[in-house]
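FORM 7B: Structural annotation worksheet

SECTION A. Query
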Amino acid sequence: MRFTTCGRIIATASTSLFNQLRISSRPRQVALSLVCANRNIFFVKRGFSVSVTMPTATGVYGSFDFRKVTPEELEKQVDALIEEQRGAYDEIAALNLDEVNYDNCIKRLADLMCLRATKGSPLDFPQHAATDKLVREASSNAEQKLEDFDVEMSMRKDIFDRVVAYNKNIGTKGLLPEQKRLVEKLIRHGKRNGLHLSEEIRVEVKAVKKRMSELSIKFQRNLNEDNTKLYFTKEQLAGMPDDFITELAQQKDDKLEVTLKYPHLFPITKKCRVPDTRKEMMTASQAKCMEENTPILEELVALRQKQADLLGYKNHAAYILEERMAKTPEKVDEFLATLSDKLQILWTKEKEEMLELKQEECKKYCYEFSGSLDYWDFRYYMNMVEECKYAVDQNEVRQYFPLEKVTSGLLHIYQTLLGLKFTHVPDAETWHDDVKLYQVEDSKTEEVLGFFFLDLYPRDGKFGHAAIFPLQPSCEAVDRSRQVAVCAMMCNFTKPTKEKPALLDHSEVETYFHEFGHVMHHICSRVQYSMFAGTRVERDFLEAPSQMLENWVWEKEPLVLMSGHYKNGEVLPDELIEKLAKSRKANAGGFNLRQIVLGTFDQKIHTRGKADTKSLFAETYMEVMGIKTIPDTNMPANFGHLAGGYDAQYYGYLWSEVFSMDMYESRFKGEGILNHEVGGCYRAKILQPGGSKDAVELLRDFLGRDPTHDAFLRSKGLKA
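SECTION B. Predicted structure
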């Protein structure tokens, strides 16, 4: 349902217009999800968990201690939820066309979306978090049932006809802007599902949607359950820091066990000087789930094209982009191609520097020099460029970022900036002892806005990337009271040991700051309807608010608040901060071109309608990067974004970064990094409206003008 290796990702988009979206992660890591729930209702506040029967203004609905749920209970709960929802839809469908009004049709549909999003999450989310494999499997099955139901409801012409009748008989005159937008969206989504077409076409579209849902869930389940392990001698891990080596599990033959999870994959591919070891790690990573997921992905591509054909669109990309800021595949192609041309100038120079370093190292350690960069060289020499050219020793830097200190500083910064108060909820019921729950209040009014879970360490069966899972939308509840927001932040940072706390690389600090930006977007939202809650904005704007906040981890004032050497508490020295700041543009060509590879590949498969993904990815990588992929691998088979709601939309990471840099440079950089007045404006103009306005309107409201590309190009070291 979400991801990549060099980018952030977000959760899966539901097949149903009535379902709530889930969210995402940074492109360096990858991610996904969905929101749903059960019939158990709990009120959680300041350490108390009490069973109640009615929603409360500050309530967390549903139990999230998945250690107390059985697979059988999940099955019963999902069946009950579906029965409850179907009955409500049947009541709407039974209305005479001349009886339809706002309350008995439009408001009722909005209420069902809210209930579906809220009651579904304790059923769907366990597959990404539960420690019991049987519970994870039951949750995945529950998601499949819910997705099938969502498809069924989204294809009900009798419901669509009543929305159309309301619009025709009564219309939107006199409605509030968000209410009018809701009606317009319901009609548009109905047409995008083919509800205005013949019954024959509708039946086909419904079958295609159900099959796509089934395949997407299976794709993600395969990734979640993958537990590949590799074994190396200490000599094969030459170049790795001693503390990394000592934390690895040692086998009877003295070999050390490593996994493909980020705390092992990234450090080894960045620091291990043995080419064969890096090659083995990257080969295993790029081949992960290849046999299972390649046919799934290629069937998805074909089905998406079939749906586009049935609905009268040229291709799947055209269908998707109709509701995005970019609007057309041609606009996306132009954006990616233009930026690629500009970045090639940087990449040409960067490759020369990397090849010089590779030649020197091959000579030093008697390795064969091939005269070119290999796929498994990319991260290693990017890291070496930072160390050699900018004197940034990432191993030294990470000593200043113990996770607890970073978390404390991060929470302080966000509270100060956005006018919030976070309170840890002790003894809260969660799915694992490592997980913490926090309550969020407005610092002035003391109104409870929501809750967030932090689940930061890797474990078997857990979602393997970095992402935010919306569990409960902030919106108007059925009884017209305000329902608070709830979400979970899932990351995979290195766990602490008895000798040493969890230490983060600077890139992981950046990831943490980015993902928490999604948490704030979800919780600070203040809309009437769940359809527009939190991150329910255009997908190619979704990352902008979080990308904007990444800038804080490159500035002295925030870095001082988030750093403290794990041995003596000393903050990150000015010298290191200056080196980090200068290194920000290091490898800008290569890193961003890799994003262009992924975005271009995504557009290619979704404009052609069918694809040999293995050969097409290899072709695209060579075309853009000038580097061969690894034989007998297929990275797209573990590119979770493509089955998790980013289909034809991966370009959005770079697209939204255009707006993130404009917001940062124009307002915060000029008026103060921790200026709470600008932060308050950002919360009110960007976060609070959610998707109740078009993204370009949000930007105009905050910037006071139309956005431009200038700051973005400067951030890449290019001329505006």
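SECTION C. Observations
The two ends are 36 Å apart (CA to CA). The CA atoms of residues 147 and 213 lie 6 Å apart.

SECTION D. Sign-off
Analyst initials: ____
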